[in-house]
# Entry
Amino acid sequence: MFKPLLIQTALKAGVVAFAMNSLAQADTIRFAHVDPDDWQSSKKGAAAQMFKNIVESETDHTVDIYPAGSLGDEGELVQQAMDGMTQVVMVSGAMSSVCPAAGVLDIPYMFESPLVAWEVLDGDFGDALAEHCLEQTGLRTLGYGETGVRHFTNSEREIRTPADMEGLKFRVQDIPLYVEMVEGLGGEPTPIAWSELPTALSTGVVDGQENPVGTIYNNNLHELQEYMTLDGHVYAADFLVINNDYYNGLSEADQAVIERAGVIAGNMGRSIQQFTTAQGLKAVQEEGMQVYRPTPEELEQFREQAQPPVIEWLTDDLGSDAEWIERLQEAVATATE
# Structure
């Protein structure tokens, strides 16, 4: 009586094994991200095109790119990569939802410049974080890109110190870390969906928001805001990851090409992000936005008020992974020096 059941179970196991083997040997690599496809203005779009060109020119694989969230939002893309439905994805904040230690990169005022962040991510800390996330998720980090350095804008007054933020309502992502940061600085955090931000700014539901310069300019947010403060409160990294089961099924030669393509693609994304930042910063000023760059002393005031509450929240949230906070602090100190 158990024979049919045993045969059925064996057949199911065989189907799963066949599917996994087919995934590992697939000639087509699916690469998904949520940004536009245009490589000249989109950091993820540029990274994807670079990855595709290298892999297709040096292996027998083809790379199909799915941009602009065509396969889902970042959370969905990460899950697809973990499940093996999509081989390669490039995401930012969603990585911390499956590998919480990645969230330490969002500690405000941690990196004094992108150069310091690159030194940290391309060094021992970045390697260790990648290995940790691989163990946690089954996703191998091929390279680190950059989604931008975030700054505050508002329509009420110039912000030079945290005292200038008091009483102002700022749209933030619905992420506790960002809520803690704005509260620590004296502002009033208001979680609002990205799609609703323009309306919230134009109707006065919020006074300001925070985003990278390129994002602010490319989405015309500067037309709804008069002031920008280049405080650089959060450096946001992109994670270019591949399903590790798929990776392990490749030949050593193909693995080497894909690893190199991932590093170069991440650097390409960084370059385009830096380009759009410089381009956007020039443009918003030419179009009348008032831009203020805080002094080192003023930035220290921001750091002293924002970091403690965020680190306290993160320590509780990470639990046993809280050691990554100190590891990052040490890596940043070494890189900065």
